[in-house]
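Hi support team,

I've been running sequence recovery on a batch of backbones for a student project. Most finish fine, but this one hangs at about 90% for roughly twenty minutes before it completes. I'm not sure whether the input is malformed or the queue is just slow. I've pasted the structure tokens below so you can try to reproduce it. Let me know if you need the job ID as well.

Thanks,
M.K.
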């Protein structure tokens, strides 16, 4: 095992020597590491001074964690060019054939490139952050707490792993450095949006949720590394010379997987669709288990966090809350005002969001959104129970009638997102990454239109025209 790891270090050492000789990479990185902390420090002071003129009462200390996160991010973006050229750059320079012919396993080549790709931006980021901390100390500003500082360093590390692992996947799949650099925006922009959410958590001081963000980014990074190794093919790197968008091939491949050889609608519905459902059966089982966990988590969170608030409330306040909840929907008017098409579109949009969030995160974000939706049910049940109401009859009347159709649709839609993420990180010989994505997309379209949409349509009709009457009967007792 150690001899195999030694070969990884051999590849990494070769890559590091090449970078150390390339002044086009080193010069911008050195300038950024030295200059950006001063620029960020000045920007923070000017921002605070400007906003405090309008009685915003901001303190420069609050900008320190945010500034550390931004300072750690920018060297990674500059160093991203190193990872983007990891394999396709070797191909353009004509040095890839000796490297691929060396007695090295695919994972050794991949990890050697990955190790240097991550280490270079991290060293630059850590040095830049250290310089900024020196400036903070000299201005007598309050440093972040050790816990927050640890979170910021872990976030910087997680961002580097995420961006570099994505860049190397692009480098493996691209045929030119130009194409790889053009695709870099699909790495920088999503991470920049992610950092906006993390910045909000920093300003709010919500450290517990920030830990979840760190774990989520690390999981996606590991999955990207797995994708890169799973779809690393030496002959693919040597064989392709130019990228061509062949829309006819894309459509024909998608249609072939979608139809599955069926000659009629009945044959498609009777054999092709069930085969797609069987493929996602393990993911459906996992999603079912996650549903029970989410219900318990939602129930437990409300019981732990809301119980104290309710116990401190005065009897008059509790009575007012119970009356407001009891009268929240005027069910007599609600029966006629609920719109089945609106409910159908809202639920369909929710399943689509889970799919697209899962598509770009290998199912991770999709499952988190799914857990949030299911957890709300458990949380509401706990809230009604704490208020002394009878939640079981209300849920049997208000959730079960349409829920027996809506919840399976939500679970099946989430299972497809989870299945796609698992399939992408699984090696499949004889198929390109594009063909695998088209096959998975065809499965999703089959299940979405063949199963999910019919279930959501029935659920919307029941929720609009049956559930209000049942709920009215229960609440009138």
């Amino acid at each position: 095992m150690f001899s195999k790891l030694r070969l990884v270090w051999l590849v990494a050492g070769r890559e590091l020597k090449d970078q150390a000789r390339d002044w086009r990479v080193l010069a911008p990185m050195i300038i950024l590491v030295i200059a950006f902390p001063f620029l960020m420090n000045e920007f923070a002071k000017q921002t605070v001074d400007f906003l405090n003129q309008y009685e915003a009462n901001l303190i420069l200390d609050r900008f320190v964690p945010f500034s550390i996160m931004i300072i750690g991010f920018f060297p990674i973006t500059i160093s991203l060019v190193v990872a983007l050229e990891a394999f396709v750059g070797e191909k353009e320079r004509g040095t890839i054939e000796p490297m691929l012919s060396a007695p090295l396993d695919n994972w050794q080549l991949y990890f050697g490139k990955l190790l240097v790709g991550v280490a270079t931006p991290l060293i630059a980021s850590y040095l830049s952050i250290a310089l900024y901390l020196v400036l903070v100390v000299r201005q007598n500003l309050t440093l972040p707490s050790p816990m927050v500082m640890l979170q910021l360093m872990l976030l910087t590390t997680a961002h580097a792993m995420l961006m570099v692992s994505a860049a190397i996947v692009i480098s493996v799949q691209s045929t030119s450095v130009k194409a790889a650099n053009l695709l870099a925006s699909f790495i920088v922009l999503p991470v920049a949006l992610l950092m906006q959410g993390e910045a909000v958590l920093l300003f709010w001081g919500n450290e517990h949720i920030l830990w979840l963000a760190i774990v989520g980014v690390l999981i996606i990074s590991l999955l990207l590394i797995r994708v890169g190794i799973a779809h690393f093919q030496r002959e693919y790197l040597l064989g392709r010379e130019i990228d061509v968008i062949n829309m006819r091939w894309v459509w024909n491949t998608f249609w072939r997987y979608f139809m599955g050889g069926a000659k009629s609608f009945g044959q498609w519905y009777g054999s092709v669709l069930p085969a797609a459902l069987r493929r996602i059966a393990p993911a459906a089982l996992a999603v079912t288990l996650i549903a029970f966990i989410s219900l318990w988590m939602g129930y437990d969170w409300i019981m732990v966090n809301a119980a104290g608030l309710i116990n401190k409330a005065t009897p008059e306040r509790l009575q007012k809350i119970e009356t407001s909840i009891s009268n929240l929907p005027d069910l007599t008017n609600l029966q006629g005002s609920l719109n089945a098409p609106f409910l159908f579109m809202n639920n369909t949009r929710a399943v689509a969001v889970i799919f697209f969030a899962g598509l770009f995160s290998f199912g991770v974000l999709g499952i988190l959104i799914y857990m949030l939706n299911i957890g709300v049910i458990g949380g509401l049940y706990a809230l009604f129970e704490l208020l002394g109401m009878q939640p079981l009859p209300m849920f049997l009347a208000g959730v079960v009638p349409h829920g027996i159709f809506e919840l399976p649709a939500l679970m099946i839609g989430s299972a497809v997102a989870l299945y796609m993420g698992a399939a992408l990180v699984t090696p499949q010989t004889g198929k390109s990454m594009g063909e695998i994505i088209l096959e998975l997309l065809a499965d999703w379209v089959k299940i979405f239109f063949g199963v999910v949409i019919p279930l959501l349509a029935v659920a919307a009709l029941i929720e609009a025209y049956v559930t209000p009457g049942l709920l009215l009967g229960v609440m009138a007792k």
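--
Follow-up from support: It reproduced on our side and the slowdown came from queue contention, not your input. DSSP finds 22 helices and no strands in the chain. No action needed from you.
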